[in-house]
Design brief:
By secondary structure, the protein is α/β, with parallel strands linked by helices. About 20% of the residues lie in helices and about 20% in strands. The longest helix has 16 residues.
């Protein structure tokens, strides 16, 4: 089964905690703090692999987690970092944030790797908090949490040229004639239920990737037939070869077929209507095709589009068509398919900015007029200190001041004696 979209959850590893430890040896009864740091959490990494063709693996596994970092230990020993997890995806995979819809990565080259969730940093051991006046710090820092998010993974196949047209126009037969691909071929609608790829070789070393895009009928842009599932794959192609049944043996008019398919492209994505297009008038071995060809040729060429008479059944005219397509490809400007974050404008609302500044905390009052301070940063700070130790408490208070918490409390109108709650701890506010 061809799977081209999935929703998955990823979780990077948490950083290990720093520890509180003091050197205790036979002849060094007061050797000082020697608590080691926690190890870094593992990252979640995506890697493009040209050997994978679908997203089928995501059908059976939807949650991926990297390894947590280990806690530090005494004698200044740091904890082991957690192992990364690498997830393989096909070329042409696009990854978006499920919550915002922002594009996170676009895999267009083999072995391209992107870190989709960063592991948490290891916490500092108490050895880092020793000063001339605080020689025995009794607190350490907890490791930070690894990033986690729901992702939308979507595959848009990478092909230089796309074969489009109504069902039974002969697209799959053309693909099988000019490449080594073996698509299913039949004389009934929707024989092809998934895009098929093949490599066309021509001339002296020339070649390109050709895709048979199924499912286009009138109304495809709004979901009729299979078009809604596969129209998106055309967006990756540089040239469209529009295969038309010139014989009209399905009871359709070839000129009308040309108009309908192009209207579907325009309705789905206006840029597709402007994509370079070449018409392959197929089934020219049939008498009705010979009769219909002059009118089709006149109309198509009147639109400024080239047309080639071919017969997929007789393998006639196909190599001339493919050589013309190949020559046209090399004349096109290089198309940048990958979304480069650094090349986008800063105000692009669809751009994911992984280094954007996140607010460290929020301040609000609950129904009992208790002031609540919340946020991932302040939560980590709170649970990394020992509030029963005077030195650790002083460190906590200084950090709040340096990070602007006291200033923000004053702006919020918090007054002397107000109750301030930070998760499980309550404090009396004193100016």
């Amino acid at each position: 089964m061809f799977i081209d979209n999935a929703k998955i959850f990823i979780k990077a590893g948490n950083g290990g905690n720093g520890v509180v430890s003091f050197l205790r040896e036979k002849y060094k009864p007061a050797g000082g703090p020697d608590g080691g740091d926690g190890g870094k959490g593992g990252d979640v990494i995506f890697k493009a692999d040209e050997g994978i063709r679908t997203l089928a693996d995501f059908r059976y596994k939807r949650k991926y987690a990297a390894e947590n970092g280990n806690n530090g230990s005494g004698q200044n020993c740091s904890g082991k970092s957690g192992s990364d997890i690498t997830i393989l995806v096909p070329l042409g995979t696009m990854i978006r944030d499920e919550l915002t819809g922002a594009l996170l990565a676009d895999f267009t080259t083999n072995s391209q790797t992107e870190v989709m969730a960063k592991g948490g940093h290891g916490g500092k051991g108490n050895q880092h908090f020793a000063t001339s006046t605080r020689q025995a710090p009794s607190f350490a820092k907890s490791g930070s949490s690894g990033e986690e998010k729901w992702l939308i993974v979507e595959l848009k196949i990478l092909a230089d040229v796309g074969l489009i047209g109504f069902p039974n126009a002969g697209k799959s037969t053309i693909l099988s004639d000019v490449t080594s691909a073996t698509p299913k071929i039949g004389d009934y609608p929707f024989t092809t239920l998934e895009p098929n790829l093949g490599v066309v070789s021509y001339g002296h070393g020339g070649g390109f990737v050709l895709a048979d895009i199924p499912g286009l009928i009138e109304g495809a842009h709004s979901g009729a037939g299979l078009g809604h599932e596969f129209l998106k794959h055309i967006e990756r192609t540089k040239i469209l070869v529009h295969v038309i049944d010139a014989s009209g043996m399905e009871g359709r008019d070839p000129v009308d077929d040309f108009k309908v398919i192009n209207e579907e492209l325009r309705q789905y994505n206006s840029s597709l209507a402007a994509r370079p297009q070449i018409v392959a008038a197929n089934k020219m071995d049939l008498p009705d095709a010979q009769a219909n060809f002059p009118a089709l040729k006149a109309y198509v060429e009147g639109m400024g589009i080239e047309i080639f008479p071919v017969s997929a059944a007789m393998n006639s005219g196909l190599m001339e068509l493919m050589m013309h397509v190949g020559n046209k490809l090399v004349q096109l400007p290089v198309q940048q398919l990958a979304y480069s974050l650094k090349d986008q404008d800063d105000d692009d609302e669809y751009l994911y900015k992984p280094d954007e500044v996140k607010k460290l905390f929020t301040i609000r009052r609950d129904e009992n007029n208790v002031v609540l301070i919340e946020g991932e940063w302040i939560k980590k700070l709170l649970f990394s200190v020992n509030l029963n130790d005077s030195e650790s408490l002083q460190y906590f208070q200084r950090t709040l001041s340096r990070r602007g918490v006291n200033e923000e409390l004053a702006k919020a109108g918090v007054g002397e004696g107000d109750t301030v709650r930070i998760y499980d701890y309550e404090f009396e506010y004193l100016k």
